[in-house]
Amino acid sequence: MNYIYDIILNFQKNYYDFFEWNKNDNIYHMHKIPIIKISDKQLFEIKNNKIIFTEQTLKFLSTKNIHAERFKQKSVTKIKNTIVLATEHEAIAIKINKEGFIQFISSLLPDEQDDVIEITKFQKETKLDYKIIKNNKLTNFKTRFELENEKFIYDELDKIYKQKNGQKLNYLCLECFNKSEKDIDLAYQKLKKELKKSNENFIKIYNIFKMTKQK
Q1: Is the pLDDT of residue 214 over 70?
Q2: Which domain holds residue 93?
Q3: For every residue of 43-106, which 3-state class applies, written as one string?
Q4: How many Å apart are CA 36 and CA 165, to the nearest integer?
Q5: Contact, 69 vs 78, CB < 8 A?
Q6: Among 205, 112, 126, CA closest to 160
Q7: CB-based contacts of 114: which residues, under 8 Å, 6+ apart?
Q8: What are phi and psi of 58, to 5 degrees?
Q9: pLDDT of residue 141
Q10: Would you say residue 140 has pLDDT above 60?
């Protein structure tokens, strides 16, 4: 079993390229982590779909005693079912929960990804056994910043609607359409529809929500 030592990972529920990492992310400083070389096809499927690894794969990880080690404070902590998956072109890290689902996923920093690829250069591919549960929608044309802003706006709008805050929904309609809309349901639907098509109103509502959050 090959390992890479002393690397930084950013474990998130969703995959983000290294240039989209944030300073407040869940950063892991790994002492060591095992590497498994797989095919390009398998890495693409694992990275872009919701999958569940079968008992066969979980047993493989268990019988091989494959575990990673993380620096935590002044000690080193073992982490089960945490591995780097590599091809000849790319590498990602995943943490699998006991049910077989990917709990967290991380890209690698470019120089560390290059090191992994070099380490596995002459390693044979392992075929992992898993099932695709759901195809994730590809949103590669949107940055993490854009996706997080979208989620923030829709969460805030849903919160206002659930609170039946007609006054605020009406105010947002006035800002977007220069027209009053006192029907709460209709105002909510109009705003959701508008956010999908108008970048100008998207920014306007985002700024309103951010200002009210800061108060």
Answers
A1: no
A2: 2-135
A3: HHHHHHEEEEECHHHHHHHHHCCCEEEEEECCEEEEEECEEEEECCCCEEEEEECCCCEEEEEE
A4: 53
A5: yes
A6: 205
A7: none
A8: -60, -35
A9: 64
A10: no
- Is there a single domain that holds both residue 21 and residue 123? yes
In one letter, which amino acid is 204? K
CA–CA separation, 169 and 171 (whole Å): 5
Enter the tokens of residue 25: 């992310």
| Polymer length in residues for the chain | 215
**20-45 core/surface letters (b: 16 or more CB in 10 A; e: else):** bbeeeeeebebbebbbbbbeeebbeb
Gap between the Cα atoms of 118 and 31, Å rounded: 19
CA separation for the pair 58, 104 (Å, rounded): 16
The whole-number pLDDT of residue 199 equals: 81
**Together in a domain, 122 and 207:** no
Token pair for 214: 């800061």
State the pLDDT at residue 14.
87
Which amino acid appears at position 177 of this protein? F
12 and 75 part of one domain: yes
